Amino acid sequence: DEFSEDITELMARRLPSKILGVLYLIGQKADKEGFKVYGVGGFIRDLLLGKDNLDIDLVIEQDAISFAKLVSKHLNGDLKTFSQFQTARLTLRSGTRIDFATARIEYYAFPAASPEVEESTIKQDLYRRDFTINTLAVELNCNSFGKLLDFFGGTKDLKKGVIRVLYNLSFVEDPTRIFRAIRFESRFNFNIEEQTLIFIKNSLETGVLDKLPGERLYEELRNIVDEDEAVNTFRRMDELGIFTKIFPNLNVSQDKLVKLQNIYDILNWYERENKQKQEKFVSKEAMVFSCLLQDQPLPIISSILERLKVPQKIRDVIITTVKETESLSSKLEYTEKNSELVQNLEEIPLETILFVLADKENQKIKNKIYYYLEELIGAGVSITGEDLKTLGIKPGPVYKTALEEVRKARLDGLVTTPEEELEYVLDFFEQKGEDMHG
Ligand code: CTP
């Protein structure tokens, strides 16, 4: 029971005119060269939901790479082709990405396993996808431009707010869809349809996640971490027993969910505060994993991080955070001088520092951290080694010590101007009785 409707007007209203222009051009080229081309997937779903999504996914009923090459002649951008998958990606100068894919019959959870891509029709291509809400397509050829194709009830499910698979074995074929289902559920405030939920539960029972390669598991968890509604998704994961399937013994208590929400609030605060300043990269997932794993013994944490094939740098941050949170916060409790505060914090990963803010309730400690992040981080001195040279001090390792001392003095308010800094340095050398003049 195919359903079709003209959504040209909606497209004209919702899409930026540049994108609309690109879609018209694509339709024209397809007509001229005898291709059939469709806009598909999240791009169409979000268009109907009224949400911005400027990554354009196209399916072509013939060879996508030849078509992409044709189109790229008329658009300024960078074309990359992937012949083993018969796909191509054109990145326009505006940053808009256009993905070209050849219509195919099977969905490859593990692309390397099936190098042969069999050309098929748009309907078969859409059937192999994850959920009905992702099976909508729009024709782009000129004489049918804007015709919405809905073979599997996608518009109805979008209206009802339902996540529904197209066939029983969907989650067995591709267990990452379990994560996608709950991610979309939280993101759009939808509900997983009853039968689909049973499929999820059954596939979890049979241990589909055990066979999932660590990298793919990690990628799905990261996709969740990046969502605005991540904490709701975590709650749902816990409800469905997904956490304990990945991390044995992991108990996601109400307390933990509150801490997770704190992490997101603090990250939002940090991002807002640092918009103007040179932005320091903070790994969200390092903070989230630290929170989830915090109360597990270190060997268990290590084995989980190994199972997920977490990149080494992130692993290090997580281990440091789990190990240091307690000692760092008790150290901070007794830190009074600014210079000590800086000394205690400057070698610690930013994620660990922000984590303490989310983890601890002690307001005194938090204030010290806020003060460090807002006022002290990156503070230096005005005088340089050149100035020390001018003073006639023999260059050497002592320069570093001297400048470090001045920096402490400056942090603690003992000196404020460059002149005072110089004076302080001179005093420093006098007291040390160093041979200043070489
Ligand atoms: N897809 C799938 N099974 C997966 C991953 C993707 O069937 N495990 C299909 C979906 O139908 C989806 C399309 O491939 O529409 C593209 O996937 P993705 O790039 O993840 O796009 P979106 O659905 O737009 O997801 P997001 O909004 O999070 O980018």
What does it look like?
Helix 14 packs across helix 16 (312-333) and helix 21 (398-411) crosses helix 22 (418-432). The mean pLDDT is 91. The strands form two sheets. An eight-stranded mixed β-sheet has the order 1-8-7-2-3-6-5-4. It has a two-stranded parallel ribbon with strand order 9-10. It is elongated. The protein has 22 helices and ten strands. It has 438 residues and is an alpha+beta fold. A hairpin with a 4-residue loop joins strand 4 and strand 5 (87-92). It has helices at residues 8-14, 17-33, 42-49, 64-72, 122-127, 154-160, 170-173, 176-188, 194-205, 214-225, 230-239, 242-246, 254-273, 284-293, 298-307, 312-333, 338-345, 350-359, 363-376, 385-390, 398-411, 418-432, and strands at residues 3-6, 37-40, 56-60, 77-82, 87-92, 97-102, 137-139, 147-150, 162-163, 191-192. It has four domains: 1-160, Beta Polymerase, domain 2 (2-Layer Sandwich); 161-246, Hydrophobic Seed Protein; 250-375, Orthogonal Bundle (cca-adding enzyme, domain 2); 385-432, no CATH class. It starts with a strand and ends in a 6-residue tail after the last helix. The structure holds cytidine-5'-triphosphate.
List the helices and strands and how they pair.
Blueprint: E1 3-6, H1 8-14, H2 17-33, E2 37-40, H3 42-49, E3 56-60, H4 64-72, E4 77-82, E5 87-92, E6 97-102, H5 122-127, E7 137-139, E8 147-150, H6 154-160, E9 162-163, H7 170-173, H8 176-188, E10 191-192, H9 194-205, H10 214-225, H11 230-239, H12 242-246, H13 254-273, H14 284-293, H15 298-307, H16 312-333, H17 338-345, H18 350-359, H19 363-376, H20 385-390, H21 398-411, H22 418-432
Parallel strand pairs: 3-6, 9-10
Antiparallel strand pairs: 1-8, 2-3, 2-7, 4-5, 5-6, 7-8
Helix pairs in contact: 8-10, 8-11, 13-14, 13-18, 14-16, 14-18, 16-18, 17-19, 21-22
The structure holds cytidine-5'-triphosphate.
